[in-house]
Specification:
Conserved hypothetical protein from pyrococcus furiosus pfu- 392566-001, ParB domain; five-stranded mixed sheet; alpha+beta; elongated
């Protein structure tokens, strides 16, 4: 595979072959050089040992959150006990907070920080000078190497890097993925509402295929979203394990989608009515109620090419050939949404 240089960076992007440890060490070396050049921003004993003990109250989360709520309390309790019995074996990595003097942000080591907070003890940390780009890359590489992030957590990490304006090449490096995988992650985080993802949680046993399939169901049945939101707040559902909550939502949205027909009002966030959407298994129709509703229909029409591209990237298994003749329908004109 060819090697692509990242502009203005010490990294080379080789998504499948480059060991994650080498890339991490490159970040560490660069960060250590910067720290040596700016000793005033690090604690006094950083230069002597490279390691400090910090009050956990002074440490804020990474600006690029990559973890959802973990409801495996037994696993975390066992981790806390291990730290209590044997000490913190691996330091966390932090940087001086770019906006608040005397505070820090985590580069990686969120679980170790949480354990130290639980035990009410200082945390061992390396303090480095590192910018946002290198922080996100180092954080992604560390978690990829440890393989302790679920697929949806990785997808949300990619989304937050997207929202922060990172180049796709930086996201590829941080998560060791290619452009097709990034497109699938974007599709899932776009079609499954963020509050529903957060309510489901990290779903550690659920991989890409089922998230992609659920995203397809949400994309085709937005009318069920509010009902699912409300039901996720029930005590019975909240007590489920994260994987079980995913399965419950997966089945519910699939059942709603199988209904096949329906109609619903189209409203903007402030409640202003645009018109109505009606659909069957073979047709989608937007009926505009006013001039702004017509503008919305025009907007949807203009967005169709991009939506088709995202749909294709989801790897949804549906027949593209005529089942009766076996001939391809790719070049046959198809009736699109009636807008």
């Amino acid at each position: 595979m060819s090697r692509r240089k990242l502009a203005g960076s010490t990294f080379s992007l080789v998504p499948q072959a480059a060991p994650a440890k080498q890339a991490e060490q490159a970040v560490e070396k660069q960060a250590a050089t910067r720290a040596a050049q700016s000793p005033a921003r690090a604690p006094a004993n950083t230069e002597q040992t490279g390691l400090v003990r910090l009050d956990t109250a002074l440490i804020d989360p990474s600006p690029f959150a990559d973890r959802l709520l973990d409801d495996d309390h037994e696993r975390f309790a066992a981790f806390v006990k291990s730290v209590a019995d044997h000490g913190q074996q691996v330091p966390i990595r932090v940087r001086p907070h770019p906006e608040m003097a005397g505070r820090y942000q985590v580069v990686y080591g969120h679980r170790r920080l949480a354990a130290a907070k639980e035990l009410k003890i200082p945390v061992n940390a390396h303090v480095v000078e590192i910018d946002d780009r290198d922080l996100a890359v180092a954080q992604g590489i560390e978690n990829s190497e440890r393989q302790d992030l679920s697929w949806i957590e990785r997808a949300l990490f990619a989304r937050r890097m997207d929202e922060a304006g990172f180049r796709p090449s930086d996201i590829y490096t941080a998560l060791s993925i290619d452009d097709a995988e990034l497109a699938r992650m974007r599709g899932v985080s776009r079609h499954v509402p963020m509050d529903i993802i957060e309510a489901i949680g990290r779903a550690p046993k659920i991989g890409r295929p089922r998230w992609v399939a659920m995203a397809k169901s949400f994309a085709k049945n937005t009318n069920a979203v509010q009902n699912i939101r409300e039901m996720l707040q029930s005590e019975r559902i909240r007590k489920m394990a994260s994987d079980a909550r995913f399965s419950w939502v997966y089945e519910l949205i699939a059942e709603s989608r199988s209904a096949g027909t329906g109609n619903a009002p189209l409203r903007e966030a402030d409640g202003f009515g645009l018109g109505e959407i009606s659909y069957t298994s073979k047709q989608l129709r937007i009926t505009a109620a006013n001039e702004r509703g017509q503008a919305f229909a025009d907007f949807v029409r203009a967005e169709l090419p991009r939506l088709i591209e995202e749909f294709s990237a989801l790897d949804i298994v549906t027949p593209k050939a005529c089942q009766m003749t076996g001939k391809s329908n790719r070049n046959k004109p198809a009736s699109g949404p009636n807008v």
